[in-house]
Design goal:
Order of helices and strands: HHHHEHEHEHEHEHEHEHEHH
Strand order of the largest sheet: 1-2-3-4-5-6-7-8
Structural class: alpha/beta
Number of strands: 8
Bound molecules: dihydroflavine-adenine dinucleotide
Length: 305
């Protein structure tokens, strides 16, 4: 089921048609407050009153014209300004293919630099999402260049990739901000752990490796997972070697296990919700279904009146 859903996420024919179906639009509302920025800002204000920060991401990937990337960058500058004007504790996270990586990586880097500078100026942070493995090297190259100039900028790394431990070791001397995830794409066994146990073990050991540096201020660590049992196991190992819960920042996606995030926040873990919005939600939504095929039943129930 997971492989079929990830195949469907990449299928052009479905990508054009599914978003027009009323039941699919209803189902996706579970994972995003709306398609436009005002809906996302409103949801963020509600979370802020519960002392949970946010990360905004506007859905989109693999653009075909560089002018589209310029428009996306302009949108994120607006997001930073609007969030700042409302006093929100907000950061932004962007896919590099949404900033034109497939067309012109130097333009992409230029946009990242301006967004990171803007974010830093208002006390926020600019994050880079991690996409499929064909983009890992170029994404890391751009992040290393960005980090040298903008020390608050961050990157997402995927625990399912066998290479990630080496990538973490290379980044750690640069005081990085790392958002660790399990990984959302369909990667072959040659380069990725495929079993849940192996991915969880990798997530745990990478977290503790980064936390060792984060405790001394040499990194920022985000555990971006809904697996609260895994988070608590990592924090318990960390506690045994003197790492306080405050070092383990937790992030979850809007609409998934919000109660667990609030509970972890009340226990002293810094917490943020990633709010995705926008009309290009189809591939992103299919990856969410692939993570938990039980969600397909929820989507199909929206067919009922
Ligand atoms: P796992 O899949 O083991 O789920 C643990 C539990 O959480 C499940 O038992 C279930 O109860 C609940 N759960 C998980 N997913 C759910 C869903 N979709 N619906 C309902 N319940 C669900 N990936 C990537 O490759 N690049 C990226 O840049 C990012 N960025 C990112 C940011 C943030 C803030 C988060 C939380 C996640 C990402 N991801 C990502 C996605 C990540 O790689 C991964 O696919 C998902 O987080 C699902 O895996 P879990 O870690 O939650 O664990």
């Amino acid at each position: 089921m997971r492989r079929i859903l990830l195949w469907a996420a990449r299928n052009e024919w479905l990508r054009e048609r599914v978003p027009r179906l009323r039941f699919a639009r209803r189902a996706v509302r579970r994972f995003m407050p709306g398609e436009d920025l005002p809906s996302a800002l409103e949801a963020a204000a509600g979370l802020g009153s519960r002392r949970i920060g946010v990360v905004f991401t506007r859905l989109g990937e693999n653009l075909v014209a560089i002018s589209e990337a310029d428009a996306v960058a302009a949108h994120y500058h607006t997001v930073l300004d609007e969030a700042n004007a409302r006093g929100l504790d907000a950061e932004v996270s962007v896919k590099l293919t949404q900033l034109g990586l497939d067309i012109d990586p130097e333009t992409t880097f230029g946009h990242c630099r301006e967004l990171a500078e803007h974010a830093e100026r208002i006390g926020s942070a600019f994050w880079i999402d991690m996409e499929g493995s064909v983009y890992t090297d170029v994404t890391l190259d751009i992040y290393r260049r960005l980090l040298a100039e903008h020390p608050r900028s961050g990157i997402c790394l995927q625990a399912y990739l066998r290479r990630t431990v080496g990538d973490v070791q290379q980044l750690l001397p640069m005081t990085p901000s790392i958002r660790l995830v399990k990984g959302a794409y369909d990667e072959p066994a040659r380069i990725a752990f495929r079993s849940r146990a192996d991915v969880d073990a990798s997530f745990q050991s990478l977290s503790l490796l980064i936390a060792g540096r984060a405790r001394e201020g040499g990194a920022r660590l985000v555990l971006a997972t809904h697996d609260s049992a895994l988070i608590e196991r990592i924090a318990s190992f960390g506690g045994a070697i003197g790492i306080p819960p405050g070092v383990f920042e937790v992030q979850m996606l809007y609409g998934i296990r919000a109660g667990e995030l609030a509970r972890l926040s009340s226990q002293g873990y810094p917490a943020r919700t990633l709010i995705a919005y926008g009309d290009y939600w189809y591939p992103w939504y299919m990856r969410r279904l692939a993570e938990r095929p039980a969600n397909v039943a929820f989507a199909l129930r929206q067919l009922l009146p």
